[in-house]
Each structure stands twice: as C-alpha cells, then as structure tokens.
Amino acid sequence: DFEQEFMNGQFDFAYMNPYHVLLGNKKEGYNPLIRDHGKKLYGVLAVNKDGPYQSIEDLDNKTIAFPSPNALGASLLMRADLKDIHHINITPKYVKTHDSVYLNVVMKHAEAGGGVQKTFNSQSEKIRSKLHIIYKTRKLAPHPFAAHPRVNTEISDRVKEAFLAMGKNDPL
Question: Partners of 96 in the beta sheet?
Fold first, then answer.
C-alpha cells in the first residue's frame, strides 16, 4: 500500500501527513522541502447538537470515533490534547474515514468524533446540522512536501524553488 511504499523509501518526493513525514525522516531520511504557510491544520471534536455531551469534561471515559490512529489533526492531535491538556480518558473507535466519524456521532455509535474543519465543512447540511463542535486542537503547519535523501540536492532545490515561484505568481 502507499504508506508502506513511502516508509520503504520508494518515492523520490512525497506530499504526506506531517506525522508520516516525521516517521519517513527517521526511517528513510526524507527531508521536508516546503509547506503551506497560509493554512494551519487543526482537529475538531464534534458531538450531537442535542445530546448530553456539550463539554470536553463530559467525554471522560466515553467512546470517541476517529478516522484512523495516525490522522494528524483528527486523531493524533485530538487524542494528545484530550489526554495531556484536559486529562480526559477515552476509548478510541477507528472508523476509517472522516465521513464515518461524523455518521457514527449522528447515529450515536460514538459520543463524539474527531475530524478536521475541512471535512466537517464538507458534510451535507443534513449531517452538519445535527453536530456541534465543542473543541478545536492546537494549530500546526499542514502537510509538507518532502524529498528522499537519494535525490540530488540540486534537483530537490530546483523543485523547491519551482514551488516557491508558483506561490508568488498570481492565480489564473
């Protein structure tokens, strides 16, 4: 699968979740070249709008749905904030997709769900209208573009400069 190929260093360049780039750096030496300065990544915690859970403290020892264990904003940041900042114990339920997170909350298969603002906003009005965001995580730099160390530095520098030049041009 794609993640395993990345972790085995099969790609010269990769645009990945920051967590995976960190792992790729440790295992294969991937070096981040650029990131989007205009956007920040953060997780959101959604509950049923009309449900009994309206604060983080209400979720102590409850089940929270997440798309996957390694989803940076939706899962890693959220679980870390709940544990380290709010001292909340939870039972994670991994449901594979962001859409499934929100559906699990609406259908009451989980007391809350971790996602990101972009995926929350992309839900249909029917789903969004039943949910309420009670928490937002810390904000981090989003997905970096990284190069494998086997890529000649001159080439990776040219790729980096090309991306930076595109960022300076006016959009079409």
Answer: none
Based on the number of CB atoms within 10 Å of its own CB, is 17 exposed (0-12), middle (13-18) or buried (19 or more)?
buried
Render pLDDT for 69-103 as a digit per residue (tens, 0 to 9).
988 899 999 999 999 999 999 999 999 999 999 99
Q: Which two tokens stand for residue 30?
A: 């991937």
Q: Is the pLDDT of residue 66 over 70?
A: yes
Contact indicator for 54, 110 with CB cutoff of 8 Å: no
What is the helix (H) or strand (E) element at residue 100, kind and residue range? helix 98-106
Q: In terms of pLDDT, which residue wins out, 171 or 119?
A: 119
Give the number of other Cβ atoms within 10 Å of residue 64's Cβ: 26
How many Cα neighbours within 13 Å face the side chain of 163?
16
Reported in sequence order, the residue ranges of 55-98 that DSSP labels E, i.e. its strands, are: 62-66, 90-94
β-strand pairing of 112-116 with 31-34: unpaired
Report pTM: 0.75
Give residue 83's Cα distance to chain centre.
17
